[in-house]
Amino acid sequence: MLAHDGHAQALWTAAGDATRGGRGVRPHLVHAAYRAFGGTDVRAATHVADAVELLHAAFVVHDDVIDGDDVRRGRPNVAGTFTARARSAGADEGAAHGYGRAAAILAGDLALVAATRAFATAPAPSRVVTALLDLLDETVALSAAGELADVRLALRVDRPTVGDALQVAELKTAAYSFALPLRAGALLAGAPADVVAALDRAGRLVGVAFQLHDDLLGVFGDEHVTGKSALGDLREGKVTALIAHARTTDSWPVVAAALGDPALTAERAHAARVALVRCGSRAFVEDLAAQHLEAAREVARDAGLPDDVLAALLALVVDDPRVAA
Questions:
Q1: d(Cα 125, Cα 130) in Å, to the nearest integer?
Q2: Percent residues over pLDDT 70 in the chain
Q3: Which of 16, 97, 112, 234 is the most buried (most CB within 10 A)?
Q4: Which residues face 76 on adjacent strands?
């Protein structure tokens, strides 16, 4: 029988295994913004970058619970790992899944508290630490709102618009994966408030563009390149800008027939993809992503943001090998 500290260590290990293998987007942006505004203490920047990654781990683990997923990047996630352990111990299927969900919620809680502590103990002046904690508080609130809004869209009790889908992308993805690390790095380097505000705007714009591309890949992507099923988003009934736009077209009945069907076949998914292209939804979302990137460039130019920061941001979308595929 594991001691209480053994249980906690098991949760940490599973969370680390499940979130390993990402592209390091958030730490990269923290360091890029910090250097761009004159920061020279690599140790301090790495501390804050690690704090941002702990927050990411918490969100990822909780998001998998909300989505009912047991796998991430082709490997068992925290819920999947502990569900398998419960099965091996002789638990029935329902109890095993309950144990897995409980473990994932608790692992996410541990990561969230650890992220808060990391922000609070950043090696920086007290006023900077206070600003970082304010940023953390704001970001967690925005992300929670975005997550709940995303779940509501899947209820199909509303008629979601493209604007609704964009708002979810901004709150759930852009605010914490793009704006947060940029602002954190700039705050740590002592950048002025107007610059930090401009980074927030630019980060959200690029983050939404990134999510729009990701939504396209979820339907049209090559599974061998993206590492995710090209049927998953359709089967889940995920309401993205792509789907919201299609709802306004004559092709909607074909798309709607595929959306939210857990038994969706490759043939019917292909028919939905053809319909999404034919009705202009794919082109609409591609153009929308390009508009967001151009708007980010304008924000950067108007605010006089360093070229290095904008280049680091745009490369995440423009140079993403998944997008090129």
A1: 9
A2: 94
A3: 234
A4: 71
